[in-house]
Design goal:
Number of strands of chain A: 9
CATH topology of the largest domain in chain A: Nucleoside Triphosphate Pyrophosphohydrolase
CATH class of the largest domain in chain A: Alpha Beta
Helix content of chain A: 25-40%
Radius of gyration of chain A: 20 Å
Largest sheet of chain A: 7 strands, mixed
CATH superfamily of the largest domain in chain A: Nucleoside Triphosphate Pyrophosphohydrolase
Oligomer: homodimer
Shape of chain A: elongated
Order of helices and strands of chain A: EEEEHEEHEHHHEEH
Number of helices of chain A: 6
CATH architecture of the largest domain in chain A: Alpha-Beta Complex
Chain lengths: 229, 229
DNA sequence: TCAAAAGTGTTAAAAATACACCCATGG
DNA sequence: CCATGGGTGTATTTTTAACACTTTTGA
């Protein structure tokens, strides 16, 4: 600590874009701000980075504190640092990108005393700071990445039907997919474990359930395999 | 400015991974550190972010100051913020990824009084801080991105031969490409403007020169076209 | 005239796309 | 028995991959 050279320092925060998927739509988690600036406005969950924690730890801590959420996938998105993005002064924010299974988290967020809620990403309210820009970038990232990495499974329950999976891709990519070709492609990767179970409580033929085989994916990945659409 | 809430703040730096390509190899720009910590060790160019400049401006300023370089492409790579990555205390660094045409910059960096030099990326010296990790990530990014965005042209002179272009891809992707298929693919995109000029001063048949058509690419991109390999 | 790299076409295999019907189940 | 979504096969087109010889030029 003897080399320290002091400059004035920007403040450092993390902000998280947490996506979830339900029957209707792709959702994003927002928090209503209790304090100025932008008091009462919806914003991405986030807050100041502590001196002794890593950036990712800060993101996890804020998600836990503000929304009681432990994301299935959390990765760095981009760092936003334009002077003027925060009226309090120079604040640089490292944005994170997270996916959760709404089946695990929707109830908590709804019943929680904190003012957190899931909004359709295509129909979100006006956001505080430059959070609209961050959300846009996160969506782009999701759309780009979902095609060549098996991220989507983090948005579904552990057991899912092929129709659910197809809908996921259709919602994220914003275009319809051919049912037969979709199934052929995915099953040919041999990353889905076919279970001896079917959906329950549907008023028509019940669809078979599948599970994503994370272990097998890790193996194939090492062997040079690339997931693609 | 009335809402300010004070936390202790990490220091904030930028570090730049600047790639260049010459006849032999893919090169990265390094600076020999004049000060502790890691005095005398090679490191990525970079430095502290000033309070009134954007992150990207900080990166450009440091490149200009430390190496006299104005990159053709500069984009954010990743933010490194683990506690302990810098012995001076908590320092978070926003890493940038830059490409330059070595034809423009090799002489300057070599004759410059500052201790800057180009090293083969496959054969770089031990680096200060966690800069080896940053370099590795930048290489990964380059390898990934070069296939679906026309980045490569930023590493070549404005007029280049197809053989030069092919070599670029071979060096970055670390695998040989078929000459005929490569040419077919690239020419079929119609992004290369065929010039009425050929190489000079070669002791064999001179190859035709081409220029990348940035305007046309922008158009096609808007129309939904995707560059690919 | 030789060395060195430029340039060029075709074929076969694989992957992507387009498309329509029968099946199982619960109400 | 009917409405609802589940499930399947094939033909066509497009893309990729593999492969070898002739041409031009300067030394």
């Amino acid at each position: 600590m003897s080399y320290t050279y002091e400059y004035p320092r920007p403040a450092l925060t993390v902000d998280c874009v947490v996506f979830g998927l339900d029957e209707e739509d792709l959702k994003v988690l927002l928090i209503r701000r209790a304090l100025e600036p932008f008091q009462g406005r919806w914003a991405l969950p986030g807050g100041f980075v502590h001196m002794e924690e890593s950036l990712e730890d800060a993101a996890r801590r804020e998600l836990q504190e503000e929304a009681g959420i432990r994301p299935g996938l959390l990765e760095q998105l981009y760092t936003f640092g334009d002077p003027g993005r925060d009226p309090r002064g120079r604040v640089v924010s490292v944005a994170y990108f997270a996916l959760v299974k709404l089946s695990d988290h929707r109830v908590q967020a709804a019943t929680d005393a904190r003012d957190a809620a899931w909004f359709s990403v295509w129909d979100a309210p006006r956001l505080a700071f430059d959070h609209a820009e961050i959300l846009t970038m996160a969506l782009q990232r999701l759309k780009g990445k979902v095609r060549y990495q098996p991220l989507g499974f983090e948005l579904l329950p552990p057991k899912f039907t092929l129709t659910q999976l197809q809908r996921l891709y259709e919602v994220i990519l914003e275009r319809p997919l051919d049912k037969r070709n979709f199934r052929k492609k995915l099953l040919s990767m041999e990353l889905l474990e076919e279970l001896d179970e079917v959906e329950q409580d549907v008023s028509h033929r019940a669809a078979r359930l599948y599970r994503f085989d994370h272990k097998k994916y890790k193996q194939l990945e090492k062997a040079g395999f690339n997931f693609e659409l």
